[in-house]
From TrEMBL:
Residues 1-38 form the signal peptide. It comes from Vanilla planifolia. Belongs to the GMC oxidoreductase family. InterPro entries: FAD/NAD-bd_sf, GMC_Oxidoreductase-Related, GMC_OxRdtase, GMC_OxRdtase_N, GMC_OxRtase_C. It comes from the Eukaryota. Residues 293-307 form the Glucose-methanol-choline oxidoreductase N-terminal domain. This is Glucose-methanol-choline oxidoreductase N-terminal domain-containing protein. Its cofactor is FAD. FAD binds at V136, W532, H533, G561, P572, Q573.
Length: 598
C-alpha cells in the first residue's frame, strides 16, 4: 500500500473526496468481519424493569405513559416513578452492550449504519442535508458527540422556568452523566487559538454558558465510555417503572369527554418487534407524555389526529383537533466547518472546547485520524474512525435529487467503498450559529410511524443567520492562523486553500457554486451541514402551553426538544435532560392528576 499523504497534501487541489471514502471502506470492512465473527449474544438487561414489548400483556394500565425513551423521556420517567406507576415506550433497543454507542472512538459507526436495527435512522431534509435521529433507549444521547453544557440564565428566564429547580435538575443529571474532558494537545491548541483570535476571557472548565472560551463537560468518562440519558434510569423506582423496548407507538387513543366534547388522551396503541399491536391505558387522572423528539413528537401527534386539517385528511387521518402549528417552527442550527489536515499526530476527540462569541456563533472542534490497516500488517493499530465527518455525510451528492430514495442513498454510501489507501489525520473546526432564526416545517409522508416525515429547515433563509455564519468562519480562520495552532497545520496551505478543499467535500446534497473567489456567504450556503440540534415542531405557546400541555386536548403533554424555540446553550442535550427531570418534579409536586398508588 502506498502511503500517499505527503503527495496529496503538497497539492491541495487534489480531490479530497477520497478521504471520507477511505473511512467508509474501513467501516464496511469492519461490518464484513463482524458478520463473520461477531455472535450477537443477548446480554442480560442492565435493569430488571427493561423488557421487550413482545413480553408485555396485550392490555395494561398505568398512571403515566411516556412515549419515547430518549434524552428527555428517560429522566422524566425515572422521576415520575418515584410516586406513580409509569410505562416508558421506546421504539429502539437497549444501548447497553452496544460498543458502537458506548465507545467514543466509534462515534461515526452508528451514524454510518442505516439498517432497520441501527440505533440511528438517517433522514435527508428537503434542504438536501443528511441528518440522523435516534432509535434507541437513551435517544440522541446515545449518538451524540457528548458535549455537555447548560443553557444561559437568560435562556432559562425567557423560557419561564424556575431557575432554582432548573439548577437542581441540572445537578441531578450531572451527578450521573457529566464529566470533565481530558484536553489533550489538539483541543488545547484550539482553545489557545480561540483566545488569540479574541474569543475571551478564558473561563476554564465550566458547564455555564458565558461569553469567551471554555472547556465544557462531556458525557464520555475518562475511559472514553459514554454515559447516556438511559443511565438516569438508575434513579427510577424499579417497582413502579416498566420500560418496553421495540415498542413503536403507532397512535394515541382518545375519548371524547361528556359535556365539553373535548378530546382526552386515554392511552396508546403500540407495536412490538413481531408487528403485533398492544395497548396501554391511563388510569383515572393519569397522563400521556410524548417525548419522541423533534421528528417523532410532531409526527406522533399528526398520526393521532392532532395537526393541520388538510394535511391529515389527505392521508385519511381522522382529525381529533385541528392544530395548524404542529410541525411548524422546525429549525436546525446550520453547522459549517473547515477541515485542517495536520502534519503532526492528533488525539481522537469529539467536542471539548467551545468559543462563545458575542456575534452569535459558537466555535467547536473535533479531531481524529485514520490508519490504513494493511493486509500484511497484523500488528497495525485497529482502524480509528474520523469522528464527526464521516460517510453519512460523504459522497451523497452523486445521487441526483429525484432519486434520493433511502435505497439510493444506501447504494451511494456503499459505492463509497473505494479502494483508496492512505492515512489521514487532522481536524475540523466548526461553527454553529445561535438560534437559528430561520424556520421550516414538518409533514407526514405516510401513516407509517417508522417512516421519516418530510422536513424542511430553510437554512440561512434569515439574513442574520447567514451573517452569523460568516462571522464564525472568520473566527475559525483566525484560529487556524494563530501561533498556538501552528503545530497542527501545514504552513504552506493557506486558509483560502483549506476553504477550497472543504468546499469540495461532498458534505450535503446541495448544488455547489463555482465562483471565482469564494465568498464566505456562499461558503456557508454551499457547505452547510447539521450539528443535529434540530428542534421545534411542538413549540411552547403554539402547540403546548407553559406546562407543556397540548392545547385543545386533555391528559396529554409533550416534553422534549420539539418544544424549543431556539437551541439552548451552545449544545442542547444538558437542557433536554434537565427538562425531563424538571417537568418530572413539577408533575410530582402537582400531586393532583393521579393519586399516589403503591
Ligand atoms: C449525531 C448527533 C450528535 C450530537 N451532538 C451533540 C453534542 O455533542 N452535545 C449536545 O448537547 N447535543 C448533541 N446532539 C443533540 C442532542 O443529542 C439532541 O438534541 C437530544 O438528544 C434530543 O433529545 P430528545 O429527547 O428531544 O429526542 P431523542 O433523544 O431523539 O428521543 C426521542 C426518543 O423517542 C423515540 N421514539 C420516537 N418515535 C417513537 C415512537 N413512535 N414510539 C416509541 N418511541 C419513539 C426515539 O427512538 C428516541 O429514543 C447531537 C445529536 C446527534 C444525533
Ligand atoms: C456497529 O457499527 C457497524 C458499522 O456501522 C455496524 O455494521 C454494526 O452492525 C454496528 N453494531 C451494532 C451492535 O449496532
Ligand atoms: C443557576 O446556576 C447558574 C450557574 O450555573 C447561576 O448563574 C444562576 O444564578 C443560578 N440560578 C439560580 C436561580 O440560582
Ligand atoms: C481557491 O479557489 C478559487 C476558485 O476556484 C481560486 O480562484 C483560488 O486561486 C483558490 N485559492 C487557492 C489558494 O487555492
Ligand atoms: C456564486 O455563483 C452563483 C452562481 O453559480 C451565484 O448565484 C452567486 O451569487 C455567486 N456568489 C457570489 C458571492 O459571487
Amino acid at each position: 500500500m502506498a502511503f500517499q499523504r505527503p503527495a496529496y497534501l503538497a497539492s491541495p487541489t487534489l480531490p479530497v473526496v477520497h478521504l471520507p471514502r477511505m473511512g467508509l471502506a474501513r467501516w464496511l470492512l469492519l461490518l464484513l468481519v463482524c458478520f463473520v465473527s461477531c455472535s450477537h449474544s443477548d446480554l442480560a438487561p442492565k435493569y430488571r424493569f427493561l423488557k421487550q414489548a413482545t413480553d408485555a400483556p396485550p392490555v395494561s394500565y398505568y398512571d403515566y405513559i411516556v412515549v419515547g425513551g430518549g434524552t428527555a423521556g428517560c429522566p422524566l420517567a425515572a422521576t415520575l416513578s418515584q410516586k406513580f406507576q409509569v410505562l416508558l415506550l421506546e421504539r429502539g433497543d437497549s444501548p447497553y452492550g452496544n460498543k458502537n454507542i458506548t465507545n467514543l472512538a466509534s462515534f461515526a459507526d452508528t451514524l454510518a449504519d442505516n439498517s432497520p436495527t441501527s440505533a440511528s435512522q438517517r433522514f435527508v431534509s428537503e434542504d438536501g442535508v443528511i441528518n440522523a435521529r435516534a432509535r434507541v433507549l437513551g435517544g440522541g444521547s446515545c449518538l451524540n458527540a457528548g458535549f455537555y453544557t447548560r443553557a444561559s440564565p437568560d435562556y432559562v428566564r425567557k423560557a419561564g422556568w424556575d431557575g432554582q429547580l432548573v439548577n437542581q435538575s441540572y445537578r441531578w443529571v450531572e451527578q450521573l452523566v457529566a464529566f470533565q474532558p481530558p484536553m489533550l494537545q489538539w483541543q488545547s491548541a484550539v482553545r489557545d487559538g480561540l483566545l488569540e483570535a479574541g474569543v475571551t476571557p478564558y473561563n476554564g472548565f465550566t458547564y455555564d454558558h458565558i461569553y469567551g472560551t471554555k472547556v465544557g463537560g462531556t458525557i464520555f468518562d475518562r475511559n472514553g465510555e459514554r454515559h447516556t440519558a438511559a443511565d438516569l434510569l438508575e434513579y427510577a423506582d424499579p417497582q413502579r417503572l416498566t420500560v418496553l423496548l421495540h415498542a413503536t407507538t403507532a397512535r394515541i387513543l382518545w375519548r371524547t369527554q361528556e359535556g365539553s366534547g373535548r378530546p382526552k388522551a386515554r392511552g396508546v396503541l403500540y407495536r412490538d418487534a413481531r408487528g403485533r399491536f398492544r395497548s396501554a391505558y391511563l388510569r383515572e387522572g393519569g397522563e400521556l407524555i410524548v417525548s419522541a423528539g423533534a421528528m417523532g413528537s410532531p409526527q406522533l401527534l399528526m398520526l393521532s389526529g392532532v395537526g393541520p386539517r388538510a394535511a391529515l385528511e389527505k392521508l385519511g387521518i381522522r382529525v381529533v383537533v385541528e392544530q395548524p402549528m404542529v410541525g411548524q417552527g422546525m429549525s436546525d442550527n446550520p453547522m459549517n466547518a473547515i477541515f485542517v489536515p495536520s502534519p503532526s499526530p492528533v488525539e481522537i476527540s469529539l467536542i471539548q472546547v467551545v468559543g462563545i462569541t458575542r456575534l452569535g456563533s459558537y466555535i467547536e472542534a473535533a479531531s481524529g485520524q485514520l490508519f490504513a490497516s494493511t493486509s500484511g500488517g497484523g500488528g497495525s493499530p485497529p482502524p480509528k474512525n474520523f469522528g464527526m465527518f464521516s460517510p453519512q455525510t460523504g459522497q451523497l451528492s452523486t445521487v441526483p435529487p429525484k432519486q434520493r430514495t433511502p435505497e439510493a442513498i444506501n447504494r451511494a454510501v456503499r459505492a463509497m467503498n473505494s479502494l483508496d489507501q492512505g492515512a489521514f489525520r487532522g481536524g475540523f473546526i466548526l461553527e454553529k450559529i445561535y438560534g437559528p432564526l430561520s424556520t421550516g416545517h414538518l409533514e407526514l409522508r405516510s401513516r407509517n410511524p417508522d417512516e421519516n416525515p418530510s422536513v424542511t429547515f430553510n437554512y440561512f433563509k434569515e439574513p442574520l443567520d447567514l451573517r452569523r455564519c460568516v462571522e464564525g468562519i472568520k473566527v475559525i480562520e483566525k484560529v487556524i492562523d494563530s501561533k498556538a495552532f501552528a503545530p497542527f497545520r501545514y504552513p504552506y496551505i493557506s486558509t483560502e486553500a483549506l476553504l477550497n478543499m472543504t468546499v469540495n467535500f461532498p458534505v450535503n446534497l446541495r448544488p455547489k457554486h463555482d465562483n471565482d473567489s469564494i465568498s464566505l456567504a456562499q461558503y456557508c450556503k454551499d457547505t452547510v451541514m447539521t450539528i443535529w440540534h434540530y428542534h421545534g415542531g411542538c413549540q411552547v405557546g403554539r402547540v403546548v402551553d407553559k406546562d407543556y400541555r397540548v392545547l385543545g386536548v386533555d391528559a396529554l403533554r409533550v416534553i422534549d426538544g420539539s418544544t424549543f424555540n431556539y437551541s439552548p446553550g451552545t449544545n442542547p442535550q444538558a437542557t433536554v435532560m434537565m427538562l425531563g427531570r424538571y417537568m418530572g418534579v413539577k408533575i410530582l409536586n402537582e400531586g393532583l392528576q393521579a393519586k399516589k398508588k403503591d
